[in-house]
Each structure stands twice: as structure tokens, then as C-alpha cells.
Amino acid sequence: MTRTVRWIAAVALLALPFVYHEAYPLHILVLILIWSFVYTSWSIMGCFGLVSFGHGGFLGIGAYITALSWNYLHLTPWLGIPLSMLAAAAVAVLIGYPCFRLRITGHYFALLTLALSAIVLQVVTATRDITGGSLGYTPERYQGGSSIYALQFLDKQTWYLIAFGVWIAGLLIRYAIDRSMLRYALEAIAEDEDAASAAGVHVTAEKLKITVLSAVMTAFAGALYCQYQLFISPDTVSGIGVSLQMVFAAVVGGLYVPLGPTVGAAITILLTETLRISFGTAAIGWDNIVYGAVLVSFIIFLPQGLLGSLLPRFTAAPARAA
């Protein structure tokens, strides 16, 4: 029955843009799907105890390299996006390998990745003649409007289908990891690195695999967000604030549940839009305050997240009835 419900929900979501054409609701749904992929990318590390505050840096790398390649080198996003993903993978190896080799874990690893977000933010701001700095950056629009070559589309329906496909891909990657040997290796490492190493697990290699995968996925999402919005700024795609938003969404939605980051994305996007519509520019920065208050409340009262706390109740009821 559960599988049937899932298929019905997936078909309904896929058919939505063909029966509903209001631009603003579709825009919100596109943002939710893209950010769901971002949060899922973070969660595949976070659920194994690898708490990273540097993913805002990977998101910025994906967005800015794709945009700069298009504007300065006239490189199609179909090549610019893989280039940005390679750059993110290189940075992930550069940061991750020394940390894992020297067994820097826990709070120390989180603080070191926090520095990565700050560095990317400072680089973007300092090179304002190239990146636009704090004023933001706009990729050049394709003269013909919509273009597959430029990965630019005027209608929301096309972007919804793209975002939906990316979201499904993120869930499939999470599903594959949950059923792979990598999961058991990382769980063993999270419990006791020495015991895992004694059992034959290559600790550094396994940690590096999941870190690079998470970084590459996040960079891809940053590039996709850039192509959709056609405007990026350090505050929206890089920096500490974006990294903390990923932690908030994954924890509130349910870090250990595949759909948890999606629930977290819906909460964060709807909260931000509600504050923006209700208070306008006076609400700038309020979302971060609300995020912090809600995050503390969830850690205390719902440590498994919203979806992680509710799902056992729904699955327990049919079992009791049987």
C-alpha cells in the first residue's frame, strides 16, 4: 500500500505543471525541489556523523564557476556545470584528505569546514570586479530567450520538470547509499574508527568518497540554482548562513529519513516567503533568527526531526492493528 501511495504521489507531482499554470506557486515548488536536492546532498554526509559547515562554499563554487564560464568564456552550462563539479571535488579532496588522514573529527572537522564557507565568501566579495561582489552577479541572457544550449528557459513548467527530475535523482542516490556497503562502512567508522580499521575498513578512503559525492552534488545544485534564477549573490549561494540553513533543514525535516530534507526545504522556503510577503525588507535576517529558535526546539523536543518522529507513529498503527 505504501508503495502504491508513493507512485500516486510521484505521478501527481509529475503531472502538476501540465494542469496548473500559475507562475508564482510553480516558482515556489521549483525552489523547494532544488533546495531539497541541496539538503539531501548535505544529509548523505551528516547522517554518518560528518557534520560539515562548509557546503555553502561548494554551492558557491558550482554557481559562480558556471556563471563566470558562460559570461567570460562563452562556455555552455553543459560544460560549465561539470567543470564546477570537478572544482568542488578537488576542493573536497583538498580539505577532506588531510582531515581524515590526521583523524580530525567531530567539532574540529565542523569548524574547519566552517572556514571553507568563509573563504569562498571572502573570495567572491574581494574579486568584485569579476564576480560582482556583494552586489551579486547575473549570467548573460540568451538572445533567443529559451535555449537548451544556454540552459535557460522562460516558462516555469520546463524548470519544474527539470527540478523534479533532479530531486528524484537525489532521492535515488540517497536510496542507493542506504543499501550499499558504503553505508555499513561509514556506520562502523562513526561508531569506532579504530574498530572499523581493524575490521578492514579503509577509513580515509570511505570518508573521502562520501565527502566528494556530497560536494559534487551540492555544486551541481548551485549551478542549477544559478541557471534558474539568473542571479546569484554571496548571501544566497555561499557563506556560513547558507551552510547553517542546510543543517537546519536537514535536522528539522529528519536527517535519517530520505524525505526529511524535502520536508525541511518546504519549511524553510515557505517560512522565508511568508516573512518576505508579510514584512517586506523589514524581515531581512529574521528567517535566520527563526531558524535558530526552531532548530533548538527540534533538537530538544524532536531530535529525530519532523518526519523522523511522525513516520514511526504511522507505521506502528498498522502493525498494532495486524
Please provide a brief summary of the model.
The chain has 322 residues and is an all-alpha fold. The chain has 15 helices and no strands. Helix 2 crosses helix 13 (260-279).
Oligomer: single chain
Number of β-strand runs? 0
Largest sheet: none
Listing every helix as H and every strand as E from the N terminus to the C terminus, the arrangement reads HHHHHHHHHHHHHHH
> Overall 3D geometry?
globular
Structural overview:
- By secondary structure, the chain is mainly α.
- The chain has one domain (about 1-320): ABC transporter involved in vitamin B12 uptake, BtuC (Orthogonal Bundle).
- It contains 15 helices and no strands.
- The protein has helices spanning about 1-20, 25-45, 55-75, 75-100, 105-125, 130, 155-180, 180-190, 195-200, 205-230, 235, 240-255, 260-280, 285-300, 305-320.
- α1 (about 1-20) runs antiparallel to α7, α3 packs antiparallel against α4 (about 75-100) and α4 runs antiparallel to α10.
- The longest helix has 27 residues, at about 205-230.
- It starts with a helix and ends with a helix.
